[in-house]
Amino acid sequence: MNRREFLRAGLLAGTGVLAGPMINRGRYDLFADGRSEHSSRTVELVGRSMVIDMLGLLTLDWSRLYAWQRDPSLFGGSDLQKLRASGVRVFHPAVDPDDPNPYQAALGWMEGWNRLLDRRADSFLRIASARDLEQVRKEGRLGIVVGFQSSDHFRSVDDVARFYALGQRVSQLTYNSRDRLGCGCFEERDTGLTEFGAQVVAAMNRAGMAVDVSHCSERTSLDAIALSARPVLVTHSNCRALVAHPRCKSDAVLRALAARGGVMGITAVAAFVSPRRTATVEDLLNHFDHVARTVGVEHVGIGSDVDLDAADPATGQPLARYAVQGLAPARRVFDLAEGLVRRGYSDHAIELILGGNFQRVLGEIWGAAEAKT
C-alpha cells in the first residue's frame, strides 16, 4: 500500500465505511469475511457520496426496533457501527401502519421515532429540511427521514400539517389496495386519484411533504404526478418493462415522473428484480440501466426495501424475498456501486445514483416550502 492508499484507507476507516483490510493493491475486503472484494474506486465513491436509501430499514426485527424506541439507551455502539459500515448515510424507514385505527397507529409511530431521535442525538440526525442533509455529511451521524407507506392516517386535509409538525416528511398516497386517496397497485379497477387525494396532494405541496406513489396504481400515480406542484417520488419500485409485476412502474410513469423532476429508487425485492426463480445483481443493475436510458441517470436512486440482515428475526434464516445473488444486504451499497463501475458509469453518475438525485429532489420539495416561511 503506497502513501496515498494508506491515507485514503485511514480517511474511510474514520467515517465507518472501511471495516476490513486491503487484501490486494486497490482491492478491499470490507467486511473481513473473505467473500467480498471491492475496488478502491468503489470504496472511495461510497465514502464521499451522500448515500440515501429512500426505503432503508434499520431492522426488520420489529420487536428490536420498538425496544429501541421505548428505551433509546438499548441502541448500542455495535448497532451504530453496523449501520455506519453499510455506507448508507440517510435511511427512510417508512412503514404502512396496517391498523384499524391508522391515525392513532401513526401517532404511536411518530412518538416512537421522536423519542429515539431526540434521546440518541449522538447517533441520529432527524432529517427535517434540506439543510439537515448537509449536516449529515459534516457530522457523521445517521440521518433518518420519517415517513409512511400509506396516507390513511390523514383523516382530513388539516392532518397533513399536523403530521408535518410532528416530523413526517414523506407520505405514500396508498398502499396496495384502494383507500380514500386513490388506488393501490393490486386493485383490479383503477379509478385513479380521488377528490380527497387531490386535496391531500395540494396540502402536502403547501406543507413541504414529499408525495410518494411507490405502491400506487398506474392511474393514481399519473394523476398525482400531473396534479402535484412539486416533484413526486417513487421511493422504492422497479421497472415493469423488465418485470411484469403490479408493483413495478411502467415507462409512462417513469417519463411523467422525470418530466416533473422526480426520482425513482430501485428495490432489492427479488420478485421485482427478475421474473426468473433466481434473481442476480446483474438483473438488479438492469433496472438502474433501464431508468437511466429511458429518462436519464438524474432520475434513479436506491430504495432497497430491506435492512442489513434480510433474515427472519425468529430463526435467523435468510428471507427468500431478498435473495439476490451477488448482493449482500449489509454491503448492498458497495455491491451496487461496484456493479455500476463495472457497467461503465462515470463517478459523477454513480454519486447521483447513490444519493445525489434524492438529495436534489428532496431539497426542491422541502426548500420550496421553507422559502415561504
Tell me about this structure.
It is globular and about 55 Å long. The protein is of the alpha/beta class. The protein has helices spanning 3-15, 40-48, 62-70, 77-85, 102-119, 130-139, 158-166, 195-207, 218-227, 251-259, 270-273, 281-295, 332-342, 347-372; strands at 22-24, 27-29, 37-39, 52-53, 90-91, 124-126, 142-144, 147-148, 170-172, 210-212, 233-237, 263-266, 279-280, 300-302, 324-325. It folds into 2 domains: 1-48, no CATH class; 50-372, Metal-dependent hydrolases (TIM Barrel, Alpha-Beta Barrel). Residues 1-11 have low confidence and may be disordered. The longest helix is centred in the C-terminal third of the chain and has 26 residues, at 347-372.
